[in-house]
Design goal:
The chain is mainly beta. It has one domain. The strands form three sheets. It has a four-stranded mixed sheet with strand order 6-1-9-10, with no helix packed on it. It starts with 8 loop residues before the first helix and ends in an 18-residue tail after the last strand.
């Protein structure tokens, strides 16, 4: 292996040749901001303004900063083999629901009502169905 992350030839192939789409479904009771980054980040300061989310980090590597309404989802076009997702509550900037969650190629995720991140059931048409068969919609 090439380190602690699973980097099989199949995953590398899928990351560059596959669809490279990840869905993030928001079952959390409020709207969330999702930061997508190419590496893990340390957050120094978060502000929610009328123009959206302002985040000061230790790196300038935020690829996307997306607001996902509760009970909705976002289709994210991935850019690399491994990316990270940080989720912040729109109603409370101090509530970082999840920080630096590793996203692997060709997988999608559900933000549950209690703030956990679950892997979506692969191939399911229900984006709120996790890999253990629990529907979070």
């Amino acid at each position: 292996m090439f380190g602690s992350q699973d980097t099989s030839i199949g995953q590398i192939f899928n990351a560059w040749i596959g669809k490279n789409i990840s869905y993030v479904a928001n079952a959390y009771p409020s709207n969330v901001y999702v930061l997508f980054t190419g590496q893990d980040i340390s957050i120094k300061k978060i502000d929610i303004t009328t123009n959206g989310l302002v985040v000061d980090t230790d790196r300038d590597k935020i690829e996307s900063n997306i607001k996902i309404v509760s009970k909705d989802f976002y289709k994210y076009s991935r850019k690399r083999l491994h990316e990270y997702m940080t989720v912040i509550d729109c109603d409370n900037a101090n509530n970082v629901i999840c920080k630096n969650h590793l996203m692997t190629a060709n997988r999608s995720y559900v933000i549950t009502s209690n703030g956990q991140i679950k892997t979506q059931s692969y191939g399911s048409n229900n984006l709120f169905l996790d890999e253990h068969g629990r529907d979070h919609s």
